[in-house]
């Protein structure tokens, strides 16, 4: 607003900005003669001079005039192209970090070479971002000659289509020749080399994805980018606005097993109606109690943790995720409605348009569930590994510039989002006309149809003959219907094609392009012209003046779709107005048809072939960038008709007469310079032609051929110019004005003649949404002919207002997306900074130890205060740091440390055996007590659930019976089963009794309810307990369901006691498994008297069992290891007696000692690896040698590093092993931290996306969704680092080196337990089932 007010008092701010730059332009122009006088070597040496001056402190701004002059001279010598003054202004503006709006055809590609060269001198890299690979390749190779002459390297990034997903990169090399356009003058290099080049060309996707890849790599050497210093974004509105809605995402398969989807699809198909409830409104499917029991029976596994029925462990959460999507696929998504199956693929059908959407997939595993349901191949599900919005990527650049032909309408967004100002730069002609020394003046006139236009003439010419033109923008024409508009467009195409004028027809979608292309087919062209012929005959007979705009009733049939018009009806109608035949080529129809199309007899020769052949044309849908550029470049040829989406072909100019090869232009310029001895670079094409025609010197065959080709091109160009140049037809207004302006800008390039016209209908989406119906009502009231075009400023203003509103709405969408991503962006920067720190920090051991201390303090406190006792803490510590057994050193877990303390120092083998058996007996008793307590709690909860469900469903049954109307039709069995949520079987007699006297069936139905609920409950209980004990029980659910609950409870507890007694008898006592295993290891009993580690192994032996089982597939006997008992519950009682502070210190001291032990283990393993492979210390990485140098001394290391390891003195080995271990541990920690952060970040991104989607519901509670998002995101981010610490701690002690093949750290038992009476430990305790992260699938 301030700028608008300022302009009222001080004039046009843009003109003032350009005026300031003109003085710099004059300085550059003044340098031109001196740079022309330089030799090639001296011109190249200018780069070295500039670098030296920069090093001495001179600024880029001070170097700018000379640097720009050097680039201009290099361009003249290599490309035969001289930068115009407006291109210099564009370059200055780009260097200052702003957007240059330079019209199409004004040479943005060449202008960008100026600031790119200047900013590349700082040695930090300069990037040119394009919209597609073709332009990156073309521009990098084309402009590469300029940079090469000046001594700079040019890198080019390309997207690979290979299956391995490799990325392509090249350096510009004038000596690298190839017959393939894709690689000519381009030398393949590694990706990092393209970024190390002074200037790098590539698409926004390639730059953005490389940034993301760099920040998820596990190896620092695999990173390719070197920072974000300076960039110019070509077609900046397309990249920074149009593509800003879609973030850059790197995703990968989630590695979910397709077998889970297939298995769950089978489960979903096997369910009965009473097993689930469908909510169509909320699009959810939930299992009933019966359904849960049925699913558990089908899967043979419980869906909730028996220890904590209200919670689920990670594996159960995973199964529930598969099941949830399979239920939705089975009962909510229907074939040939939401999707179809075609060629073995599930293709989504758009719910609004009914169109197929190939390539689109439902998320969260739903698509895989539908594929499993339909029996087609289940494709891998993808998860997000890294993501960033276009906005936040480009905001990382220290300085950013942009260029496009259409930016001014979006200047607010550019400034508010990116901090970029927009400077509209005049065309070369406008600039020259503003300079008095050029002699050009701008005039206006009207054409033969009365339309206003502007042109340029020589001020000294008395006749003021037009030398150059401004584009004619005809007023929009509006039709009532889309059909009438489409016909008018085709007639416009026919008329201009008949005279040979090239046309570019812009559409807003691929579908629109194809629909219009179909209309140019021969049959539809003939049918359209036949309707035109009849209308023209009617007009001449009834409305010769053309002042009646009402719709004639007798011609209403002509408004039917062209493919539905029947020739007999048309002939009958035509005969009424004097048309004898509808043969368009008949001589009797010629004058009538030419008059209707506003053509002359001279045009008949080109018009007549269209009757049989249709209109030859090209359709461009922006699918293949290479073809796109070739097609669009030929759109200016004589008679060319090109249909393209509005955005297609950006970056490629349309030249009248077709594209002149740049190589030909270079040849002609060189001929004029060498033969005519003139400066050709400041000449216009017409001036070049005049000089070529006046050539008198001797020409070589190659020069003569180039001159003749140039003359032929100029003749074609003049032919097209005489017809009015390129005519642009807009088939529909785009929702953004700049897209319409971009389409218009294709015409009238660099002073060529050209025109544009947009065709609209009141049925167009933009018109329909913003007031078109009101105008249509008005036209209908006055019976306005739908084929009559309307040119009304009022409607044009309505369209522009609608576009402004849509632009504002789209800006809000992009701003909204950015506001949310800004939250994630701050977190992303911190995560990526943490990864960089991990890569670059020399020693990470202190960081990991600090994580250990931070995480374990609260964990120990929570474990001690747990109402169930500290057994979960002990189980957690056992999971974090299990026993370590290696040939060099062994170390017990914290649980085994406590067990060893309890075991004490034995006096002999029998005493040791007695002590171990006593400890085991105590452990089994404690485990049984814990198990019995859990089972009683489970039974209590089951009893309460049974009571609640019985009462609730009894009430529902009473209500049903009270309102039951026997006169209405009923499916009694289904109704009652659904009501009670249990299977109910009603014989005919009972159904009859229910219809006659509903109350009489109350008692039988209540009995059926109780029995059904009891059956469901007992099935779940038995399934859970059988899995827990690993045996099949003799109790039957069908028998228990008919008994009172106290009897059921009693029988289950009796069975539990029986199982625990049997298990204790088998494990304990003089003849138990444990005693036999100890006796089988008598030699270790002897060793254990003086060796604590041997005692640890004997204790470990007592917990390990082996059972015989049979593989269901192979029917073979196999041995599997089991956990037959645990010391966790008995030893947990000891923790209750230790003060919290002391316990915390003991745990930390133990784990920190374990870290030191691991250094020794990995040091010895590394030593053995080096020795086995005959490596010396000299082969170690430099950082490891530096550490050894500090440990041993540099002189001593020099002596030792050339020796084989076996010859290193024994007294030096411990020091070497210590440093090898530290280096190995640091490598492990680095990979552990990087892997954990990456893995956790990937899961976090999924959670954040789910949060963003769900948080919009907060607005219904009168809350600002963004505020809620920021609050919850902050909490989740804090939890993210806690999860990282937890994961690091859970894995840091589980790394193991490769151990010698003959080493076994565990002892073997005496035998195996038979499968029929395995009785292994009922359940390996999962202490952290409630606390650990639930890995639910998203």
Précis, in short:
It contains 50 helices and 28 strands. A hairpin with a 7-residue loop joins strand 18 and strand 19 (466-469).
Care to describe what's here?
- By secondary structure, the chain is of the alpha/beta class.
- Strands 5-4-3-6-2-7-15-1-16 form a 9-stranded mixed β-sheet. Strands 20, 21, 22, 23, 24, 25 and 26 form a 7-stranded parallel β-sheet that branches. A 3-stranded antiparallel β-sheet has the order 11-12-13, covered by helices on one side.
- Helix 3 runs antiparallel to helix 4, helix 26 packs across helix 28 (about 700-720) and helix 32 packs parallel to helix 50 (about 1265-1290).
- About 35% of the residues are buried.
- Residues about 1-10, about 305-310, about 1255-1260 and about 1310-1338 have low confidence and may be disordered.
Largest sheet: 9 strands, mixed
Question: What proportion strand?
Answer: 5-15%
Low-pLDDT residue intervals, each spanning 5 or more residues: 1-11, 306-311, 1257-1261, 1312-1338
Task: Report helical residue fraction.
Answer: 40-55%
Oligomeric state = single chain
Number of helices: 50
* Largest sheet strand order: 5-4-3-6-2-7-15-1-16
Query: What is the CA–CA distance across the termini?
Result: 46 Å
Shape category: flat
Determine the mean pLDDT: 84
Q: In total, how many beta strands?
A: 28
Please state the CA-atom Rg, rounded to the nearest Å.
Answer: 42 Å
Structural class assignment:
alpha/beta
């Amino acid at each position: 607003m301030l700028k608008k007010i300022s302009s009222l008092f001080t004039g046009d701010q843009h003109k003032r900005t350009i005026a300031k730059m003109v003085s710099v332009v004059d300085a550059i122009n003044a340098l031109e003669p001196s740079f022309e006088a330089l030799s090639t070597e001296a011109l190249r040496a200018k780069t070295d001079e500039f670098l030296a001056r920069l090093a001495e402190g001179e600024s880029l701004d001070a170097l700018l005039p000379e640097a720009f002059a050097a680039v201009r001279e290099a361009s003249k010598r290599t490309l035969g192209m001289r930068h115009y003054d407006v291109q210099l202004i564009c370059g200055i503006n780009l260097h200052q970090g702003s957007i240059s709006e330079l019209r199409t055809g004004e040479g943005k590609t060449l202008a960008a070479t100026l600031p790119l060269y200047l900013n590349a001198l700082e040695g930090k890299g300069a990037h040119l971002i394009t919209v597609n690979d073709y332009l990156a390749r073309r521009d990098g190779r084309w402009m590469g000659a300029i940079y090469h002459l000046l001594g700079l390297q040019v890198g080019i990034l390309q997207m690979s289509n290979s299956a391995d997903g490799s990325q392509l990169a090249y350096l510009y090399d004038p000596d690298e020749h190839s017959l393939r356009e894709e690689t000519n003058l381009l030398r393949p290099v590694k990706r990092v080399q393209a970024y190390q080049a002074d200037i790098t060309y590539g698409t926004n996707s390639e730059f953005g994805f490389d940034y993301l890849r760099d920040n998820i790599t596990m190896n620092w050497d695999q990173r390719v980018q070197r920072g974000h210093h300076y960039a110019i974004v070509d077609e900046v509105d397309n990249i920074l606005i149009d593509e800003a809605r879609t973030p850059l995402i790197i995703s990968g398969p989630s590695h979910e097993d397709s077998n889970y989807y297939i298995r769950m699809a089978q489960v979903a198909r096997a369910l009965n109606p009473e097993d689930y409830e469908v909510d169509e409104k909320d699009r959810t499917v939930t299992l009933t109690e019966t359904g849960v029991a049925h699913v558990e029976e089908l899967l043979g596994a419980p869906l909730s943790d028996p220890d904590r029925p209200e919670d689920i462990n990670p594996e159960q959460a995973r199964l529930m995720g598969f099941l949830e999507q399979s239920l939705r696929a089975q009962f909510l998504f229907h074939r040939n409605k939401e999707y179809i199956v075609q060629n073995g693929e599930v293709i989504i059908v758009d719910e609004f348009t009914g169109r197929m959407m190939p390539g689109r997939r439902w998320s969260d595993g739903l698509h895989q569930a539908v594929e499993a349901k339909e029996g087609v191949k289940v494709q891998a599900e993808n998860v997000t590994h890294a993501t960033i919005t276009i906005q936040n990527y480009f905001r990382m650049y220290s300085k950013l510039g942009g260029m496009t032909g259409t930016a001014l309408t979006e200047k607010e967004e550019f400034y508010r989002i990116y901090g970029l100002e927009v400077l509209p730069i005049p065309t070369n002609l406008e600039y020259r006309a503003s300079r008095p020394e050029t002699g050009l003046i701008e005039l206006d006139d009207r054409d033969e149809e009365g339309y206003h236009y502007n042109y340029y003439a020589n001020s000294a010419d008395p006749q003021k003959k037009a030398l150059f033109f401004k584009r004619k923008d005809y007023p929009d024409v509006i039709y009532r219907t889309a059909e009438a508009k489409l016909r008018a467009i085709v007639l416009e195409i026919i008329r201009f094609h008949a005279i040979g004028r090239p046309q570019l027809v812009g559409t807003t979608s691929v579908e629109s392009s194809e629909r219009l292309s179909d209309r140019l087919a021969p049959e539809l062209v003939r049918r359209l012209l036949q309707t035109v012929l009849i209308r023209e005959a009617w007009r001449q007979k009834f409305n010769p003046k053309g002042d009646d705009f009402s719709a004639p009733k007798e011609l209403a049939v002509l408004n039917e779709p062209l493919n539905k018009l029947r020739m007999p009806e048309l002939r009958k109608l035509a005969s009424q107005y004097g048309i004898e035949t509808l043969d368009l080529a008949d001589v009797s129809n010629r004058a009538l048809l030419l008059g209707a199309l506003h053509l002359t007899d001279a045009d008949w020769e080109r018009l007549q072939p269209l009757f049989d052949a249709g209109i030859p044309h090209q359709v461009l849908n922006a699918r293949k960038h290479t073809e796109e550029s070739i097609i669009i470049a030929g759109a200016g040829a004589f008679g060319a008709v090109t249909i393209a989406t509005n955005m297609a072909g950006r970056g490629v100019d349309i030249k009248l007469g077709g594209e002149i090869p740049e190589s030909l232009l270079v040849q002609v310029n060189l001929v004029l310079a060498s033969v005519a001895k003139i400066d050709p670079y400041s000449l216009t094409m017409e001036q070049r032609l005049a000089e070529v025609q006046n050539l008198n010197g001797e020409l070589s065959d190659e020069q003569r051929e180039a001159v003749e080709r140039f003359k032929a091109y100029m003749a074609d160009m003049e032919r097209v110019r005489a017809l009015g140049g390129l005519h642009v037809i807009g088939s529909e207004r785009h929702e953004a004005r700049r897209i319409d302006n971009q389409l218009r800008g294709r015409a009238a390039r660099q002073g060529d003649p050209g025109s544009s016209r947009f065709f609209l209908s009141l049925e167009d989406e933009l018109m329909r949404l913003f007031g078109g119906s009101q105008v249509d009502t008005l036209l209908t009231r006055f019976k306005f002919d739908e084929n009559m075009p309307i040119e009304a400023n009022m409607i044009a203003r309505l369209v522009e207002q609608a576009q402004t509103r849509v632009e504002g709405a789209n800006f809000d969408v992009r701003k909204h997306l950015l506001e949310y991503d800004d939250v994630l962006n701050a977190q992303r920067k911190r995560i990526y900074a943490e990864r960089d720190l991990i890569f670059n920090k020399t020693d990470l051991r202190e960081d990991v130890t600090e994580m250990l201390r931070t995480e374990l303090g609260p964990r120990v406190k929570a474990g001690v205060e747990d109402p169930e006792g500290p057994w979960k803490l002990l189980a957690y510590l056992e999971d974090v740091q299990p026993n370590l057994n290696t040939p060099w050193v062994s170390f017990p877990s914290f649980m085994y440390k406590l067990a060893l303390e309890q075991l004490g120092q034995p006096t002999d083998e029998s005493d040791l055996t007695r002590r171990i058996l006593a400890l085991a007996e105590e452990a089994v008793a404690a485990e049984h007590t814990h198990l019995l307590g859990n089972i009683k709690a489970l039974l209590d909860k089951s009893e309460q659930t049974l009571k609640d469900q019985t009462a609730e469903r009894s009430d529902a049954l009473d209500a049903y019976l009270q309102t039951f109307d026997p006169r209405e039709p009923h499916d009694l069995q289904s109704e009652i089963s659904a009501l009670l949520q249990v299977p109910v079987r009603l014989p005919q007699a009972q159904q009859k009794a229910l219809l006659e006297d509903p109350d009489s069936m109350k008692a039988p139905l209540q009995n059926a309810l109780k029995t059904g609920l009891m059956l469901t409950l007992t099935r779940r209980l038995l399934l859970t307990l059988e899995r827990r004990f690993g045996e099949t029980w003799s109790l039957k659910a069908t028998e228990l369901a008919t008994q009172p609950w106290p009897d059921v409870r009693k029988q289950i507890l009796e069975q539990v006691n029986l199982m625990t007694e049997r298990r204790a008898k088998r494990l304990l006592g003089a003849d138990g498994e444990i005693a036999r295993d100890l006796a089988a290891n008598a030699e270790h009993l002897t060793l254990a008297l003086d060796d604590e580690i041997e005692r640890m192994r004997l204790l470990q032996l007592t917990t390990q069992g082996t059972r015989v089982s049979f593989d269901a597939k192979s029917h073979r006997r196999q041995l599997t290891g089991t956990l037959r008992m645990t010391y966790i519950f008995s030893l947990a009682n000891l923790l209750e007696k230790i003060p919290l502070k002391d316990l915390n210190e003991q745990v930390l001291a133990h784990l920190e000692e374990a870290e030191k032990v691991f250094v020794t283990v990995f040091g010895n393993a590394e030593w053995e690896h080096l020795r086995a492979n005959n490596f010396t210390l000299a082969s170690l990485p430099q950082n490891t040698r530096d550490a050894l140098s500090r440990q041993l001394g540099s002189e001593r290391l020099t002596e030792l590093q050339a020796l084989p390891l076996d010859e290193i003195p024994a007294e030096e080995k411990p020091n070497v092993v210590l440093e090898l271990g530290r280096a190995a541990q640091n490598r492990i920690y680095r990979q552990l931290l990087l892997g954990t952060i990456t893995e956790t970040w990937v899961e976090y991104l999924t959670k954040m996306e789910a949060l963003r989607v769900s948080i919009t519901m907060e607005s219904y509670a009168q809350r600002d969704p963004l505020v809620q998002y920021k609050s919850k995101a902050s909490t989740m981010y804090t939890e993210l680092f806690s999860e990282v610490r937890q994961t690091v701690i859970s894995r840091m002690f589980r790394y193991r080196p490769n151990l010698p093949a003959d080493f076994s750290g565990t002892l073997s038992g005496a035998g195996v337990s038979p499968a029929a009476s395995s009785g292994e430990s009922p359940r390996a305790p999962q202490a952290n089932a409630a606390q650990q992260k639930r890995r639910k699938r998203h």
